[in-house]
Design a protein that fits this description.
Blueprint: E1 2-4, E2 7-9, E3 13-15, H1 24-33, E4 38-45, H2 46-51, H3 54-60, E5 69-74, H4 81-90, E6 95-100, H5 105-108, H6 120-138, E7 142-147, H7 157-166, E8 172-175, H8 189-198, E9 204-207, H9 213-223, E10 227-230, H10 240-248, H11 259-276, H12 279-294, H13 301-308, H14 313-324, H15 331-335
Helix pairs in contact: 1-11, 4-6, 7-8, 9-10, 11-12, 11-14, 13-14
Length: 336
Amino acid sequence: MLHIGPKTLQSKVLLAPMAGHCDLPFRLLCRQLGGVGLASTDLLNVHSLLRGSPKAMKLAATCADDNPLCMQVYGNSADPLPEAGLWAVDHGASIVDINMGCPVDKVAKKHGGSLLLCDVEDTVRLAERMVETITPRTGVPVTAKIRLGWDDDRIVGPDLARRLEQVGIAAITVHGRTTEQFFKGTVRLGGIREVVEAVDAIPVIGNGDIRCAEDAAQMMAMTGCDGVMVARGALGRPWIFREIDARLSGQPIPDPPSRLEWLGIIERHLDLILEYQDERAVLHRLRNGISRYAKGMHGVKRLKDSVRVATCADDIRSALRMVGTPSPPTSQAVMA
């Protein structure tokens, strides 16, 4: 188990807040397949959240089965982050996370994200305001997701993590790259280890390049981190959490889904999108995601082609069932 403030997570494996991917249907799918200790929303813009914009409400949508839930907010010291954090608690967040690591320009160069790595003093004061506003009155812990620094000349991760702990941040997730690296190169396990060594008592969660159970085990062994956060490794493989959880728990790693189970997982994703969103969202998510789902699965070109030209959810459902239906025996097999 993993403890973040007063919250106890049943698994040390967390679903990262990935922009464009971590909507409610995907979080529920990952949870239903097992092994998820905590799932996060997409990045939430504080102004959109407090204004109640339809897009923000969709990103923050949750339900009783989506628990425990982290809502991640982004902004800077001029923005109403504490108020947005309270909104998140009122709308189902078990944990409120401050995004200090997003490298995307529209976040990092305007509103927050990795921009917060460039002024440690101001960022620590912002975190302190967040903690003082949220935790005493709600009991909900505030966490932070950081990178190692803006670039190799500005590695601030260890010092920032130490100071965030001092003002009450309950856990740190660190992506083992700089902002300048974006997602290029290899995650720096040594950099994550330095952040782990910098704090006294709060958990540090490692993030970056976790694509299988062994990647997670290696990260924990080499860095001493307390848990792992999976991002891109979960796209097309939402069962990765149960595999990692088993590996970290010393249990046998479950077999990968059979072909029929794999098709059933895609159809379950379709059903969840229809239940909580709409048919347009089905077409958008599965057309764009079918290549990830199909990676490593042989003989599914027909499925990928059918999903990409689908005009409704039933077209996708039919394509899945067609691929899952055994081919009729050949005349030679019948004669035999």
